[in-house]
Amino acid sequence: MATTVLVVEDEKEIRELLRRYMERAGYAVVSTGSGAEAIRLLGDRGVDIAVLDLGLPDVDGSDVLREARERGGTPVVVLTARDAVEDRIRGLRLGADDYVTKPFSPTEVVLRVQAVLSRARHESGWSDSSATSYGHGRLLIDEDRHEAQMDGTKVELTPTEWGLLTALASVPGRVYSRYELVNRVRGYEFSGYERTIDSHVKNLRHKLGPAGTQVVETVMGVGYRLGLRRDT
Fold it and tell me: Which pTM does this prediction carry?
């Protein structure tokens, strides 16, 4: 079954351009210029990733992004105007997995979608035999299946949150600066993005439950570390 991309863009020409390029890349595409319709489509749970323009006429794009996060952590690539730095920061803080500025190359958007999906894709099912255990079994991370459990409950993570967790878990107790985490998770630099890591960490902690701040510890003035030891 083809991966489904939801394109949410109120400018018809751009929307149709993205549709054509996504379909050429082998994706199934649903598209809309309405934020309200986008929220409905996300509710159908048939969407694997969304490409979202924040500047929609009927519903604030941030609300659509929030719905995507709350409905199973659907990955989102945000489209913003070239000079809309605040929009980019706002989108990333709300949990967007990447952004592309306008005007853009549609090929770049396809490549960004492919990169986010490669981080997000995982097999269904759970097998603790291939998982790494931390904190006497409290936290399980299965990188082969791209899955995590906390206190016996599966944790649904966005690609960025997953990248943060696995980066911190690679060397438990080691302190990672925000800059290091940006490069580990994104694979490229983005000036000004370091502080948005804090928002992703906050979301990750919330999903890990009451012990979230103990699992992902803050080292003041430096960064973050995993507060659980790897089980032997």
Answer: 0.57
29-77 per-position pLDDT tens digit: 999 999 999 999 988 767 889 999 988 889 888 889 988 887 777 889 9
141 and 216 together in one domain: yes
DSSP string, the chain: -PPEEEEE-SSHHHHHHHHHHHHHTT-EEEEES-HHHHHHHHHTT--SEEEEES--SSS-HHHHHHHHHHTT---EEEEEETT-HHHHHHHHHTT-SEEEEES--HHHHHHHHHHHHHHH---SS--GGG-EEETTTTEEEETTTTEEEETTEE----HHHHHHHHHHHHSTT--EEHHHHHHHHHSS--TT-TTHHHHHHHHHHHHH-TTHHHHEEEETTTEEEE-SPBP-
Range of the domain at 103: 4-120
Same domain, 112 and 16: yes
